[in-house]
Write a structure and sequence with these properties.
Strand content: 15-25%
Distance between the termini: 64 Å
Structural class: alpha/beta
Number of domains: 3
Largest sheet: 10 strands, mixed
CATH topology of the largest domain: UDP-N-acetylmuramoyl-L-alanine:D-glutamate ligase
CATH architecture of the largest domain: 3-Layer(aba) Sandwich
Radius of gyration: 23 Å
Helix content: 25-40%
Length: 481
């Protein structure tokens, strides 16, 4: 069992006190605002700017931060450290001025690591499930009376915010592997939900992804612990390599043989976790085997922090989901609409499995937007195989995000492998009406992807409630088109 205590200082010896007055360039971003919010709550002088006046900036200003809309070198003021968002261009006037002045310019993860330097740090890493698992751990610990600080990569309705300063010495943080920045943290407890090739635009090869996770677990101290999912081949292999290295303990959780915390998932109302001390029923409000596994990870962390298993199991019932993680968007004509951030084949498969469990005997329809040209190129067939689990799979054009187009790469690469119930679809009204035409009372509609596909959920709900053609008429019209 791990008791809260001081952490070793992060790389380069940074602590939050050593940062001095901190200026955030791009403070309105979800990750940047999270770190700024905690620093303000901990009494650090914070200023920040963004190109647009975003709602979170007013909240930070009310909490005591000095906020600017628009970028200008003068916004730096008397800053002693600068945190620059990942979308900030090198020619940004504030970034250029900071470099010219010789100020330290930090990645968001470095600033967060410094903020956590005196805490007992719990980090959650993995290709999928990080935000949900981090949220579950936070809500569980709050329910058990430990009140951790936390920083999560998604808004959590039950928490009201994605980051906050707690009264205990525990800090729970989502650790992003996408650009290797999770190596800036110094956890005492590291959760790894799964390890699969992704973000190959950064890593280049699957082997480089696996090596980065090895480097991550190597950061654990001798009295720390790796909590890893026994059901995932990549996480289990990582656990084996960590044990062979011998630098820390390993705890496996899941349904697979060898798990120290054995999960039994018989569906809604039949989830329990077996420990050496007994079996403990878990009442989950979120569907899907992947969420049951995430709950088991949170349960394992709680036990490491000294929470009684009965209290841990009971507190998990308070978790109602994170934003864009199978999030209910509304209902019309008996059709329920959900939205999910799923942007990797494994995540799409898990989201559709959850949708199928909610749908019962009814059908499942998915509107999917591929995210990144590089990811589509690498996983087109796998995306199609995952989408083929739906009764209807409609695929939008690729959301480019940070990438330029790659010749020959389009959503058609996925379309080539779709089952008869799937096809490519145009944007906006065409997509909305195609979903409405396919759905019948009792069905589930899922919008999925990391881009702006999330905006379609409310539009679909509105169209359903606006008296769109009934299913039979629409299907007949579609068949004759």
């Amino acid at each position: 069992m791990i008791q809260p205590q001081h952490q070793p200082e992060p790389q380069a010896g940074r602590t939050q006190e050593s940062l001095g007055r901190v200026h955030f360039i791009g403070i309105g971003g979800v990750g940047m605002s999270a770190v700024a919010r905690i620093m303000v709550a901990r009494g650090l002088p914070v200023s920040g700017s963004d190109a647009k006046d975003l709602p979170v900036m007013a909240e930070l200003a009310a909490a005591g931060a000095r906020i600017h809309v628009g970028y200008a070198a003068a916004n730096l003021g008397d800053a002693q450290s600068v945190v620059a968002g990942s979308a900030i261009r090198p020619d940004n006037p504030e970034l250029a001025a900071a470099r010219a002045a010789g100020l330290p310019v930090l990645h968001r993860s470095e600033a967060l690591a410094a903020t956590m330097a005196d805490d007992t740090v719990v980090t959650v890493a993995g290709t999928h499930g990080k935000s949900t698992t981090t949220s579950m751990i936070t809500i569980l610990l709050q329910g058990a009376g430990l009140d951790p600080s936390f920083a999560i990569g998604a808004n959590v309705p039950a928490l009201g915010v994605n980051a906050a300063h707690g009264s205990s010495s525990i800090f729970v943080a989502e650790a992003d592997e996408s650009d290797g920045s999770f190596l800036n943290y110094r956890p005492r407890i590291a959760v790894v939900t799964n390890v699969e090739p992704d973000h190959l635009d950064h890593y280049g090869t699957a082997e480089a992804v696996y090596a980065s996770f090895d480097s991550f677990t190597a950061l654990l101290p001798a009295d720390g612990v790796l909590v890893a999912c026994a059901d995932d081949d990549g996480a289990r292999a990582l656990a084996r390599r960590t044990l062979e290295r011998g630098n820390t303990r390993v705890v496996l959780y899941g349904t697979a043989d060898g798990a120290a915390l054995k999960l039994h998932d018989g569906g809604p109302g039949d989830v329990w976790i077996e420990t050496p001390g007994g079996r403990f029923a878990v009442d989950l409000q979120v569907p899907g085997r992947h969420n049951a596994l995430n709950a088991a990870a949170a349960f394992a962390v709680a036990l490491e922090l000294g929470v009684a298993p009965e209290a841990a199991a009971g507190a998990l019932a308070h978790f109602a989901g994170a934003s864009r993680r199978f999030e209910f968007k509304g209902e019309g004509r008996g059709v329920r609409v959900y939205d999910d951030y799923a942007h990797h084949p494994t995540e799409v498969r898990a989201a559709l499995s959850a949708a199928r469990s909610v749908a019962g005997g009814h059908r499942v329809h998915v509107l999917f937007q591929p995210h990144l040209f590089s990811r589509t190129r690498e996983f087109a067939r796998e995306f199609a195989e995952a989408l083929n689990a739906a009764d209807t799979a409609l695929v939008l054009d690729i959301y480019p995000a940070r990438e330029d187009p790659i010749p020959g790469v389009s959503s058609q690469l996925i379309g080539d492998h779709l089952a008869p119930g799937g096809r490519l679809i145009g944007p906006d009204e065409a997509a909305v009406q195609a979903v409405v035409a396919a759905a019948a009372p009792g069905d589930i509609v899922l919008t999925a992807g990391a881009g702006d596909v999330t905006a379609y959920g409310p539009l679909i709900v509105a169209a359903l409630n606006a008296g769109a053609p009934d299913h039979g008429a629409a299907a007949a019209g579609a068949a004759g088109a």
